[in-house]
Amino acid sequence: MPWPSLLTAMVTAAVTTAATPWVLRRLPRPPEAPDYPALATPRLLVAVGALTLVVTGLVTCLTPVAHWLAWASLAVVNVWAVVIDARTTWLPAALSRIGWGVAAVGVATAALVRGELGPVGAAALGAVTVGGFFHALWAWTRQVGYGDVRLAATIGAVAALEGGATLTAAAVLAGTCAGAVWGLAHRAGRHTGPFPYGPGLWSGPFLALVWWAVSGAL
Asked: Mean pLDDT, 10 residues at a time, over the chain (218 residues)?
């Protein structure tokens, strides 16, 4: 890993980890939501730091600098969301919406750097397609939560910005498979009730990005 990428990943992970208790205290709490501040345990902070370091390292090594802000919607904002989901099966809507905002600003930045509107159109199509698919899945089956639908829209936007339909399809497929494996592990552990699908879904674009790079598509 080139040292600028490593340094960027380390700084991002450190700042994200340090900000975690503050973020958990500031999140709006609907009546049915978990006690977010109580989640700020050393174990959760280590998870946030490790995940952010790994995925930010992948992003800074494998994507153009102009795309980094868009990827931060997944590599920073939604790290908090999926870590909370893993602990509580609850994806905070506020973090999902912040993720949308970061992705939108990141896509606009990419469009400005490239001097064309192509990134905006690709990201919008990806968000609508993937978000719409998961919305239909939620409406017809109720097998995913609506937090997963919000996350899916961000995944669609970022993956489409990076690699169009190919990377978007790979991200959805990889995330679906990872979510299924997570669910099987949940059941194998004799757990009952809902399992957190968000972490598996969230991992999809990063797994797809690795495949994209290994396959020589980058």
From this structure: 83 97 95 93 97 96 96 98 94 96 98 94 97 95 90 97 95 93 72 79 96 77
Cα–Cα distance, 86 to 17 (Å, whole number): 17
Query: The dihedral of CA 164, 104, 31, 29: what is its sign?
Result: positive
The answer to whether the predicted template modeling score (pTM) of the entire model surpasses 0.90 is yes
Tell the burial category of 32 from Cβ atoms under 10 Å away from its Cβ (0-12, 13-18, 19+): exposed
Give the count of beta carbons closer than 10 Å to the beta carbon of residue 35.
Answer: 9
**CA-to-CA separations, 175 to 171, 184, 201, 203, in angstroms, rounded:** 6, 14, 4, 6
